[in-house]
Write the structure tokens for this entry.
Amino acid sequence: MKLKVVYFGASLAGKSTNVKVLYEKLREKGIAKGDYISMETDENRTLFVEMFLSSFNIEGQNIDIKVLTTPGQFRLHPLRKVIMKGVDGLVFVVDSSKERENINFLVLRETAAVLKEQGFDLYSLPVVVQYNKRDLPDAVPIEELQPVCNPWDTEYVEAVAIKGKGVLETFHAIVKKILLEKVSAKELS
Ligand SMILES: Nc1nc2c(ncn2[C@@H]2O[C@H](COP(=O)(O)OP(=O)(O)O)[C@@H](O)[C@H]2O)c(=O)[nH]1
Ligand SMILES: [Mg+2]
């Protein structure tokens, strides 16, 4: 089974940090396959692509997961179609800082529009919300972020991605959600 997971969120929310830390953690477990592929500008901003593959086995079933991030200005990015093509699930990385509070909602709306162009409904795909940067002294309380950033009312994870906190939990949650959805789709058909 091949799955594609895309991390989206405002620029500087911590998407690259998540995916880099995740790659290291999965490599330690021996389930990252190949290299971590990244193209960045001099300022460490994602230029086109960041991705890696993870491969493991659950109950005899081989699962290959491609993990990607969306680059800055995703709505205008020439590769946005390629990145979202065939996406199975998404992680919404939310910047908890007070100053970025309103950006999160704009990104949500933009991402929904990009997906719609490709025939996907963001609100019916498997999603996990990650509230990142919980270490910041001005982190907005979760109760305040939830109504805006979690329209799915889906599972959320509190994270400090730079410290590795919540990174694996987020990945587990999205993979589990995708797999459960696939199993129930099979049962219903
Ligand atoms: N305080 C804090 N900073 C973080 C956290 N996660 C990422 N950052 C910092 O936020 C900045 C942007 O992170 P990056 O992963 O490049 O964001 P991206 O634009 O979404 O890919 C970097 O300076 C990171 O070190 C976190 O949990 N807490
Ligand atoms: Mg980035």
Q: What stands out?
A: The pocket of guanosine-5'-diphosphate (ligand 1) is lined by residues 9, 11-17, 44, 46, 132-133, 135-136, 160-162 (CB under 6 Å).
